[in-house]
């Protein structure tokens, strides 16, 4: 995070969210949303590459970093996390829509926000990295199982294998044991092994262990209820997928159906693992800027980008 970032607090549903802003005060606002078990510091290599043009806003999600940690599982439902996002967006840019860049569970949360009617007025664009729309993922899985093909079955099984760790996260004691074992060598070493990240690029947040444990409520509150009964979730704002082709947690092929749900979709694949905001920060920043540039160009030509 920029050393010049200004910290403020946004309160939503009694949750105090730590918000950090830097960059061009006259630039378009872009909100960065981190996932599990990160904090706003996930974006420390990307923020400097956006500050010349944008007002860059990031925040610690509920349960992480300097924000409030709810104890009840229901506080981590996607609807409430989407409400946090809108509270931050309304606070930092009440009169204009914001661009959004989100990763992992942050991306899952913003997918929830993007499906709401107010998204057309409050979200100018959405760039998603390694965080599926859970409803779209559920629909994708159902479609492959309902009309099975060898390729489809293989893809579903591959995603199930990639997500098997989430089973342990549904059992609090097992979740704690898995996290302790998984991160035993430290966060930089884990990211190197899991996602090919250079350890020298990684800073371990002081709240990592508690954030990781608290954040397992995200899995328990959302995965089974949504994947078991996925909703039709149509998205009317411009969406940009940055797909990490080497992501061992979120396999790339489940995005193949995203165009059925998103009217205005752009996709870029990069040869990166799950934590690409650290390992491939230059690519993420460049692709995000290029996507926003393309929208500005279309707007300048009189194209209705909201559709």
What would a concise description of this structure say?
With 307 residues, the protein is α/β, with parallel strands linked by helices. It has twelve helices and eight strands.
Task: Report the principal-axis shape.
Answer: globular
* Euclidean distance between termini CA atoms: 35 Å
Low-confidence stretches: 303-307
Which range does the strand content fall in?
A: 15-25%
SSE ordering: EEEHEHEHHEHHHHHHEEHH
Portion of residues in helices? 40-55%
Continuous helix count: 12
Largest sheet: 8 strands, mixed
User: How are the strands ordered across the major sheet?
Assistant: 1-2-4-3-5-6-7-8
Averaging pLDDT over every residue, what do you get?
92
- Based on secondary structure, the structural category is alpha/beta
Report on the architecture of this protein.
The chain is an alpha/beta fold and 307 residues long. Helices cover 42% and strands 17% of the residues. It has 12 helices and 8 strands. It has helices at 47-50, 78-92, 105-114, 119-122, 134-146, 150-162, 165-169, 172-182, 187-195, 208-228, 276-279, 281-300; strands at residues 6-12, 15-23, 28-33, 54-59, 98-103, 123-129, 239-244, 265-270. The protein has an 8-stranded mixed beta sheet with strand order 1-2-4-3-5-6-7-8, with helices on both faces. α2 crosses α3.
